[in-house]
Every structure is written in structure tokens, then in C-alpha cells.
């Protein structure tokens, strides 16, 4: 293990402990972002370097010294930029108990989200993206209702988790379930103030469940996507129970190596970053800020003003940055740290990550300052940062969601105040 790898490992452990300590004290969304990045950019690659899966494609394309020599300093600057900005966030008081005053509005926000959830899949293009953002209002409403003193309304919070689970099982897509479960736990901890021991036990249980999910996911998807006609919930539960209690059963042994590779790939974003380090500049020149400029432009201007607007999704950048091919309907993100290297070389990429982290924190502090007078905004922060916390997403995806989600949320607050005559600043939501 190289010295940079050791430094990276210690840095991720530090971020993990900070995240644990912040649970129950604040809503540590930025700490979650740093932790996910550290796990996928550093811990996953470390596992692959020391216990390689020998997959034909999902492997580390450069030596550990070269990879860690760029990624760890870049991650360190990213962490430094965020933590420097967060030093000023301690002055923001979060009167989270005041959310109980807005239970009536919480019900309406929840219902608005449910309505758009039902129609979002039927709307085209930009309207579909707008509906997707508003559909997530149901979770903001559930968070508000969790702080209500009405036990019946508080149950909506737990119902939303059940709903997430059932939707995930139906679609065989579990990413939103995992991410929103973590967001919900942040607010649960903020209200219930669990001890560090309780937090660590919960995290351990969550990691066990996530690991088991990764073990069965390939088998479950292969059956569902091939037209399984039975009860999908029953199928999921049976596979889960088999994975936990009957490890040597026939179904859990089927394609075991393939599922093991998938576990590593899901954690290890580093194989894509290493492919970028291998491709640029050996076969492709540095992009010198081109994709960064495209991302900023795409996030600011709507498509009718920018007909050449870059599409979010990751397919084009992945192939350009890595030199690897993808299936026609497949997309993969190159991550911001990979994109930073591809545009600005090693030292420029490291510096960019520090600046990016600091700018994110400035915006976070701006939003937190607004929660002092509009505590309801706190429940919308996971919606605004939904794509930001993902380590695999590239800048165009992150900025597009951050800007559009912010616009939708602030337009909603404007409409609630001026059109619906809601009083979201003085606690008269009962």
C-alpha cells in the first residue's frame, strides 16, 4: 500500500467519524457527499488493487501509485474546500422542532408530490424533469409531518419508506431507496438524538442490508427484467432470506462470481477514473475546460435558448474520456474528480476539486441561512442535493440538477407565499 493510499484511507475514516458525530446535530448532507466520494474513489479502488476481481473491463487501468497520487490529493482538497466553508455553518441555528407548526402545509406538500409522482412518467422532456423534482416533494412533506405532534401524520414518514421500498422492488432499481433512506435517517436522528453506539449499530445494520442487496440484485433483476410473472415482493424476500441464511443454496451460488464483480464495481468508481488516467493524454488530449464550460452553460440556459445543449447522462463523456465503448442504452458517469483531471491535468484537477468543494459549501451556507426564517426549506435540502451527493456523476448532471431543483423549490416557495397565501415564515401552518 502506497503512502498516498494510507493517507486516503485515514482521510476517509476521518470523514466517516465526522459524519457519525454530525448525525443528530445537523443534516450532514455535505459530509455524506464526502463520505460517498471517499468510499467510491479511494476505498473501492484499494479493495480492487489488493483483491482484484480480474474482470475483463472493470479493473484498475493504472498502477496504484499513479492513481492514488492524483485522486487522494484531489479528494483531500475537496474535503478541505468543504470543511473550510462549513466552519461558518455553526452559526446557523436549526430550530427543527418548529417544523411541527407546519403540519397542514406538510400534508399539502406530500399530496403535491404524490400527484406529480403519478404523472411524471407520462410527461416529455423538460416537463418530465420538472415533474420528477416536484414528485420528490412527497418526501419533503413526509419529513415535515415526521415532526408533527399528530401520531397519525407522523406515520406518513414511515409510509414513505415503505413506498420507496415497494417502488424499488417493482422496478428492480434500488438507488433512490438507499439514498432517501439515509436522508430520512438524518432527520430521524435530528429529532431523536441517538447515541453514537446506536448510530454505529444502525450504520452496521444498513451496510449489512446493502451488502446483501448487492448480492441478490443481479439475480433478482435477471428474473424481473426477463418477464417474471409472479409476486416480485415475494421473489425479493425469498432471495434476500436465502442470501442471509442459506448462503450455499443453489440460487445464491448461481453466477456468484458475476455478482461479486458487481459488488466491487458498485463501490469502486476508481476503475473509470483510472481508465481516464490511462487514456488522457496518451491517446486523447486534455479537454482544457471544455466540458466544464459546457456543463455551466447547460445548467443555466434552457434547451430552446441553447439547441446544442449537452445532454445529461454520461454516455458521451464516458467514451471520450476513457476510450471505452458502451452499449447503446447504457450510460456511466466519469465523476467530477475524473472530469477535473481530463480537463486540467493533475495539479489543475486537484485545485479544481478544492474550488468546487468550497463553492458547494457557499451555496449550502446560503440555503442554511434561509432556514432560520423558513425552517420548512430544511426538508427540501435533500431534493436540491440529490445528485450532488453521488460520487459517480459528472459536472453537467450535478449542476443541471442543482440549478433546476433550486429554481423549482424557490418558485414553489414564491407561489406558496404569493398565490396560495401560505405563511411559511411565522409558524401559522396548523
Verbal overview:
- The chain is mostly helical and 430 residues long.
- It has one domain (3-418).
- Helices cover 68% and strands 0% of the residues.
- It has 18 helices and no strands.
- It has helices at 3-22, 29-50, 64-86, 103-119, 125-135, 137-146, 151-171, 175-192, 196-224, 232-245, 250-253, 256-267, 270-279, 290-300, 315-322, 336-371, 381-384, 395-418.
- The termini are far apart.
- Residues 248-260 have low confidence and may be disordered.
Radius of gyration: 22 Å
Percentage of residues in strands: under 5%
- Spatial gap, N to C terminus: 58 Å
Number of domains: 1
Number of helices: 18
User: Which residues sit in consecutive blocks of at least 5 with pLDDT less than 50?
Assistant: 248-260
What structural class should be given to the helix and strand makeup? mainly alpha
**β-strand number:** 0
- Average per-residue pLDDT, rounded, comes to 87
Reading the helices and strands in chain order gives: HHHHHHHHHHHHHHHHHH
**Share in helix:** 55-70%
Identify the overall geometry.
globular
Q: Largest beta sheet, briefly?
A: none
Keyword list:
single chain; about 425 residues; 18 helices; globular
Provide a brief overview of the structure.
This protein has 430 residues and is mostly helical.
Topology:
Layout: H1 3-22, H2 29-50, H3 64-86, H4 103-119, H5 125-135, H6 137-146, H7 151-171, H8 175-192, H9 196-224, H10 232-245, H11 250-253, H12 256-267, H13 270-279, H14 290-300, H15 315-322, H16 336-371, H17 381-384, H18 395-418
